[in-house]
């Protein structure tokens, strides 16, 4: 379930919960990046990034924390803009005291905080890591809240961003995740928002997406969103869950290992009962109706493969629909360094990590959703582990990772990860969901590519993966770079009979949109000789030790920028051969069902 109450043992000595409510007016103007290399660069200021930065700083490391948002907290601890004058900014957060305590420790530490900094690549620079970012406005480029759940909001940097480079001896990725979208007829109507987007609107803007809001999709987030909307005054006619909760009965040990999660789920259920919100399982919104905005939805029963059962459609009036089908780890930056990945129980890709959060690339650590979606408490735990491990690595004090506290954190991580994996298996999308799509449904909203065009590419031209579909149809070549449409494109391609290449995460030179002027203005003395013909087809599954050098990576990124006006924008679609990321375009069913 979405996190609320922290475990009894609480955060560690580096993350005490004492201290006042954080200043919601933010930390003020961001300081300049450090002139000298720091020990640790932490990318993402959600629960994992905050915990990691505080833990590492408490052990003597110089730490720089970068995040795309104006205020720390990530998606989980979004809080209202100070201009709204919220009397109780933590009212929508069950574990606000954990965040306030951690924020107090952060502001009392020597951590350099760079808010409004969107990291677009990390590359090797001699013995250091060069973290390249651009400054810009807060968060998600499209404002729908689907960019990040835990960490750095790097979906868009805005126009006119200022380039920034932070050099560090080690890097901690805490970049969070983004929502997985499964399209259906009518999903592009105004009033249809991501479930996380609805939550973000409420947390940061104190506004509702509508007066009568249907909540649909799959995953524990739905209950949290529905109960919050109902408590805020929205009428929630129904919560529509595609999976069956009886799947939880198959994993009793994982559930009992995290009893506070069961209590939390029961609290959300009680809130729905109190507001008289019905819950329909093994059902889905298969169509949204409306002209200028959504006016009603059709809810259909599903079989165990998520295929709609004919004749079961029921129309429900609404003026908004909040829909989400789980989360996808945001690992583009780490992939660029060659970090190895693994398949998660619900078919997404997460980073391979050892017992103390180290990736397969020496000096690179990760925590939170990058290692697999698991909620805020798991992110806090992993962040603290990663901060301690980074200190042990850089200070040469291996005893730091052999303490009783670290062993305790490891046990807690194992319990929370087992619970998260059980939830992922229970809510993994079934392969039959593509039956919701008629040929006229836009699958790629950015490029207006319909399901019919994707099916044509599969049937007539032999496309068997998202990359080939992209080359034939442009699906995934727009602003979102496949974050929204990638899953649907991959599932439609994989539905075809015959042999196909299994999906794999692909490396890109740019992990976020960057103004071409920023690339063109990079100091050639810093970037080295630019390669006029960079490799247009980088290895999609690089050797863990095959991370690019600073000169090579920046030369690749800037090769096309020399003759382009500075007002244009380079997206992560360069080079063109890189596919709609398989990070989002994961399989339509869990690995054990393929």
From TrEMBL:
InterPro entries: BFD-like_2Fe2S-bd_dom, BFD-like_2Fe2S-bd_dom_sf, FAD/NAD-bd_sf, FAD/NAD-binding_dom, Metab_Enz_Cyan_OpOx_G3PDH, Opine_Oxase_asu/HCN_bsu. It comes from Streptomyces longispororuber. This is Oxidase. One of its GO terms (molecular function) is oxidoreductase activity. The lineage of its organism: Bacteria, Bacillati, Actinomycetota, Actinomycetes, Kitasatosporales. Residues 39-383 form the FAD/NAD(P)-binding domain. Residues 1-35, 134-162, 525-594 are annotated as: Disordered. Pfam families: Fer2_BFD, Pyr_redox_2. Residues 17-27, 551-585 have a biased composition (Low complexity).
